[in-house]
Amino acid sequence: MGGVGFLYEGKTKIVEAIDDDSVILTFKDDITAGDGAKHDVMQKKGQMCSEITSRLMHYLNTKGVYTMFMNYVPPNKIRARKLKMIPLEVIVRFKKAGSFVRRYGGQEGEDLQSPLVEFTYKSDVMHDPLMCIEHLEVLGIVDRNTALKVIESAKESAKLLKEFFEIHNFELWDIKFEYGTDSEGNICLGDEISPDTMRLRKAGEIFDKDIYRRDLGNPMEKYEVVLGVCQSILL
Q1: Could you tell me the domains of the chain?
Q2: Residue-wise pLDDT tens digits, 61-91
């Protein structure tokens, strides 16, 4: 069978092809920040992030969003569609936070007038620089039509997840997505959806990787709470 075997190991995941059309993502217990400058290993992180990702992507699938998710393989693996990943991080912001505040000012948690989508180029060495659609076209990353499809999918996915978490009295401040194309060239949501890739707050408390970035305690305690919320989504 063609295309079977190890494909890639990143900071938090290992990707292995199991056939021509699907892969296994193994979620590691590693947690990083600052483009990998800060790095620790935390017990059960891979297990929690893989299950959270599975349930949230399954939820999006049921709402008509095309994601990589095929099935959850406990304790820390996902069987997923094999994608050719686009080297972009696609960030949807509902509130001002993090790098947005550092670049443009304002207060953490301040509402934006409407959801904002930002593209950054995936490069730890270059510290994920911001890109506009013209950058994507000129550098041959994706064409304008593909970029607009990604924006549409990202906004819809973020809206659906925001609504899901609001039911449980959480606020989704922002979220980072990654996209790829399947064997037929269709745009597909890939990678991961977990507290590693979003800002999630409840009554002033942080339930995401900002706990680790800011040395505010053990982030796994809050990740476990998020997992409990996501377990309301049946697989």
Answers
A1: 5-81 (3.30.200.20), 84-230 (3.30.470.20)
A2: 999 999 999 999 999 999 999 999 999 999 9
26 vs 101: CA distance, rounded Å: 33
Q: CB–CB of 68/189 below 8 Å?
A: yes
* Radius of gyration for the chain, computed over Cα atoms and rounded to the nearest angstrom: 17
Amino acid at 86: I
Distance separating alpha carbons of residues 235 and 233, to the nearest angstrom: 7
SS3 state of residue 62: helix
Q: Cα angle vertex 48, ends 98, 23, to 5°?
A: 95
Mean pLDDT of the chain: 96
Q: Which residues, including other chains, have CB under 8 Å from residue 129's CB and lie 6 or more apart?
A: 120, 121, 123
* Cα-Cα end-to-end distance for the chain: 29
The SS3 of residue 217 is coil
Shortest CA distance to 161 belongs to which of 53, 17, 5? Answer: 53
